[in-house]
Specification:
The chain is an alpha+beta fold. It is about 25% helix and about 30% strand. Strand 1 and strand 2 form a beta hairpin.
Length: about 240
Amino acid sequence: MTIKLGLLNNVQVRFLCPADVDEVKRLCREWFPIEYPDVWYEEITSSSRFFSLAATLNHDIIGLLVAEVKTKSLCNKEDTGILSFAFGDDSQVAYILSIGVVKQYRRHGIDILKRESGVSLMSQVSSQLAKKDLKGRYPLGISSGIFGTFEDDFQRMECQNRIRTLLLDSLLSHLTTPERQNCKAVYLHVLTTNFAAMKFYDKRHFKQFRYLPLYYAINGIHKDGFSYVLYINGGEPPWTLGYPL
């Protein structure tokens, strides 16, 4: 599908496929401080267990999102309390493993200063995904980069956030269809020092749920994290929101 964003022209969204393994591996190693095993890249580009999207321009991947839908009972211990006790263990939640966006827009030929009017982003995404046979496919923090002159910084950040929004809205559009009403929350983890990611999720109505001390191991050093949650399809938080179990 081709989506026209306000600052981006001819950006396409498609599902990842096995042929993307090498490119996805290279991008993730550039974007994220965590080293993923090779089997992880193979799974996210081929397994129906994951909802894996790529935003592309001129056939190059400029952003990606990987998520997994699972039952509440399969959540890790630190995430088991994100839903109210009113929802049974068979209730589903979606875990965003990663969202990443390239930082060097100019090499992809994007005119970041051109603005267009058009149909809303959400309506385009919903319309296009509705035509896609997902065949049971269910759906990683945020990467950001700043380059070039200072006066272009705002435009570049806006471009990056529009791509992230496109990918996230594609996931949410899928999860809020009548067939997915049993999915009650979307959640993710983020480093406590990743202020760009936290600002993005705050603006998208995610709520900080829990502080996760020493959650990440990066280059042999443990780092703290937060979990963030967005409730959908009538999902609700526990009474003791944010209280560590």
